[in-house]
Amino acid sequence: MKRAFTLIELLVVIAIIAILAAILFPVFAQAKEAAKKTACLSNSKQIVLAFMMYNTDNDDKMPGLFAEITPINGGTTTWIPYDQQVGPYIKNYDIFKCPDDSSGGAPNVPFWDGSFVSKKLKRSYGYVGPIFTVEAGGRDSANTGMSTGPYDATVPRNEGRTVTGMDQPADTIALVENWLDTDIDSWVGGPWGSGFIECDTAELAGRVVPPVNDVDKLPPSCPAADQNRKAGKGHTGGSIYGFADGHVKLMKWSQVRANDFAKFKIKKSTTTFTP
After folding, report:
1. Which of 65, 78, 171, 254 would bridge with 149, disulfide CB 3.0–4.6 Å?
2. In this structure, are residues 131 and 198 in contact, taking their beta carbons and an 8 Å threshold?
3. pLDDT tens for residues 56-98?
């Protein structure tokens, strides 16, 4: 004669299952996030390698920031985003979206290539232009950014910097993962949100908002609205960065904020800044 489960035994089994689930579910979530981070690293790697190929074919010059070219396919702006400049080296525009980027909506911004309006391809990575630094006392067009774009009249707007003109390409950031859950203005084919400029450093993942310590503060020239701007989600408290020599890595906010955003500077300063 078979013996049935008692209520106590059934409750014990249920409790064991619940404990195992509580242990395993976070592990599954971590594994899923690790896979997304790996995919995001791969995306960034392909983009910066496209920069390198563009640079090789363009007399050592990087893509221009907000370069001006006649729009195509019914586009409504002459500003061509970096993704269209390096597009021939990539062929797959899906890589411009990080798998963790959950923002969306309907594009309501100008597009250089009008055919991308209906495609609604989100872009999660910004091409580094001039940012604000303490050393410059504001926008550092002379020493930050892969291209100065419209911020320096002495430099052709459609041209970027030369990699050979950088002190340390392997320690100079060219591409930044910067997306917000509420940010829906950055779309492949359009210039809005394509450049990482001025006080956009506020959006980098890992930054404490509102600032608590000096390391969380932006340069004093950034207004209060930027000091308290929402930080991005990123991955495990950091963001993925692509460098001018073609490598990529995940870094914490404190690493890129260190020494007055030294990793964004073309010519490395001999002055030490805190933070």
Report:
1. 65
2. yes
3. 999 999 999 999 999 999 999 999 999 999 999 998 999 999 9
Give just the sign of the alpha carbon dihedral 206, 207, 212, 216.
positive
Strand partners, 240: 250
- Report the C-alpha gap between 171 and 269 in whole angstroms: 13
What's the rounded Cα separation, in Å, for the pair 164 and 161?
9
Please answer whether residues 44 and 239 qualify as being in contact, where contact means their C-beta atoms are separated by less than 8 angstroms: no
> What amino acid is encoded at 182 in this protein?
T
DSSP the chain: -PPPPPHHHHHHHHHHHHHHHHHHHHHHHHHHHHHHHHHHHHHHHHHHHHHHHHHHHTTTBPPPTTEE---BTT---SEEPHHHHSGGGT--GGGGS-TT--------S--SBGGGTTT--B--EEEEEEEEETTTTEE-TTTBSS--GGG-TTS-TT---BGGGSS-GGGSEEEEE---TT----BTTSSTTTEEEETGGGGSTT--SS--SGGGPPPTTS-HHHHTPPPP--BTTEEEEEETTS-EEEEEHHHHHHHHHGGGBSS--SS----
Neighbours of 107 (CB within 10 A): 22
Q: Alpha-carbon torsion 214, 219, 220, 222, what sign?
A: negative
And the tokens for 181? 């859950």
- 176 forms bridges with which residues in the sheet? 126, 241
Q: How far apart are CA 156 and CA 130, in angstroms?
A: 15
Tell me how far apart the terminal alpha carbons of the chain are, to the nearest angstrom: 76
The C-alpha angle 268, 47, 115, rounded to 5 degrees, equals 130
HSE (side-chain half, CA atoms, 13 Å) at 7: 0
pLDDT in tens, 234-274: 998 899 999 999 999 999 999 999 999 999 999 999 999 98
